[in-house]
Specification:
Strand order of the largest sheet: 6-14-13-8-12-9-11-10
Helix content: 40-55%
Shape: rod-shaped
CATH architecture of the largest domain: 3-Layer(aba) Sandwich
């Protein structure tokens, strides 16, 4: 078997945990449906039993040496024969005559004759929706069985051992058994549905999937962290530089700086297939980590529709300076929002080469934040001025075919995709793509105070 396609126990557990709500709903549904059917749609059944014993004419044989192996074999055959007589139409029809409300076929379904293992006893049962009627039927059935058996096969002596008793305990439906079976069926059905959904689900969900099918390296996996979000700066009035030192972002920074394939590259375009994958969060934290290491870094906001990085750093949009310094040493920001003309897009395209030439002359690293691949031509235009493109992939959000199509289009136009960042659990409500929708987005007014920043803005 191909080792790459082997799924281990941890993968199975993760698949089940991810869709555990299906297990809960399916098992609850089957148990509830079974309970309703058992209570309201199935008539309760009551059962009464009688027992018949087969003996020789001289009962003393049981206590004498004359009780041979041949006798044992004879009684075993007699037991089977008498059971068949009990099931015969002769006995059933005679019993049905005494209960005119039932046909012979109905009586036949109600009664049964079962030999008890390793004994000479036959157990007769009658099951119906009335305990008294079940008692009457089984006693009549036993009486008719003894009478007809002695006429047909008088080889043994049939004695009534126990007559039928009045039993008011419901034997059918068996609620505990039915609910247990329903629960197991619900679990099995839900697990089957989960693996079917997993099979037909073509979303990108793992590092191995990206490297195997997309054939792009995963530069880093970003795991869930409440402190990773942008808006958390202001939800916690005090925050330290340790926010920017999350291990995953440091790993991404180190990969770009020291990897033999990337260490010569100084500018990176950060994009994604869809909005809400966390690309702005990652671009911001990457730029901050580079600046904290003493690298003069430019964070460029090329989101034509919703530029917001200037607002994050409380930079006025009407300032004339092209590259604005932030409150962090070595970190500068360029935002398309500084271009106020109605023909912003045309002006930007005409000045792209000039802007990037100036950026390359003044900065060690350039991090470019762009819209999603919905604006693919825009990404193609800007990527001409960068050394490489990094795609952020939100776990379980992007379809594999969609990503491969985008990758093929970009590579045809010589866009250099150097790798991906797998965003496993960034809380999307805090990413820039959704943050611009909030009113009064005055997030940052920060100052250094003994290594800490103080957030004076208000997040709504």
């Amino acid at each position: 078997m191909d080792e790459e396609n082997v799924i281990d126990l941890r993968d199975i557990i993760n698949i089940l945990k991810k869709r555990k709500w299906i297990i809960v709903y399916a098992s609850t549904l089957t148990v509830t449906a079974t309970l309703i059917i058992s209570l309201f749609f199935i008539n309760p059944k009551y059962e009464s039993k009688a027992s018949i014993v087969i003996v020789k004419e001289d009962a003393r044989i049981f206590y004498e040496d004359r009780y041979t192996q041949s006798d044992i074999l004879m009684y075993q055959k007699l037991l089977k024969t008498y059971c068949e007589i009990a099931k015969s139409n002769l006995v059933i029809d005679k019993t049905a005559e005494e209960f005119p409300q039932y046909k012979s076929e109905e009586i036949k379904k109600m009664v049964s004759a079962v030999p008890m293992v390793d004994t000479q006893i036959i157990e007769l049962k009658a099951k119906c929706n009335s305990p008294s009627l079940a008692q009457n039927i089984v006693n009549t059935y036993a009486k008719n069985f003894i009478e007809e058996s002695m006429k047909v096969l008088p080889a043994g002596d049939l004695k009534l051992l126990d007559s039928g008793k009045y039993m008011d305990k419901i034997v059918s439906p068996n609620y505990k058994l039915n609910l247990s079976i329903a629960f197991v069926i619900g679990i099995m059905m839900s697990v089957g549905i989960i693996f079917l959904l997993e099979y037909i689900d073509t979303k990108i969900k793992s590092k191995e999937q990206i490297e195997r099918e997309i054939k792009l390296p995963v530069l880093v996996e970003i795991s869930n962290s409440k402190s990773m979000s942008i808006l958390n700066f202001c939800e916690n009035l005090f925050f330290s530089e340790r926010f920017f030192e999350l291990e995953s972002f440091k790993l991404l920074k180190n990969t770009l700086q020291y990897s033999k394939d990337l260490k010569e590259k100084k500018s990176f375009l950060i994009s994604s297939i869809k909005e809400g994958e966390g690309k702005t969060t990652i671009a911001l934290n990457l730029a901050v980590n580079l600046s904290l290491e003493g690298k003069k870094t430019l964070l460029m906001d090329f989101n034509m529709l919703h530029p917001s990085i200037s607002s994050l750093f409380n930079i006025a949009e009407d300032e004339k300076q092209l590259f604005e310094k932030t409150q962090l040493d070595n970190l500068y920001v360029f935002s398309i929002s500084t271009i106020k003309s109605a023909n912003r897009k045309e002006i930007l395209y005409s000045r792209l080469e000039e802007i990037f030439d100036l950026a390359y002359k003044n900065f060690d690293y350039i991090i470019v934040d762009t819209p999603s691949a919905a604006h693919l031509s825009y990404i193609q235009d800007i990527s001409r001025f960068t050394d490489g493109c990094i795609f952020v992939i939100k776990e379980g959000l992007v379809d594999m075919k969609e990503f491969l199509n985008t990758k093929e289009i970009l590579e045809r136009t010589s866009v250099n995709i150097v790798g991906t960042v797998l965003n496993k659990e960034i809380n999307l409500k805090y990413t820039r793509e959704n943050a611009f929708k909030r009113k009064n987005f005055n997030l940052y007014t920060k100052q250094f105070r003994k290594g800490e920043y103080i957030c004076q803005g208000k997040a709504r």
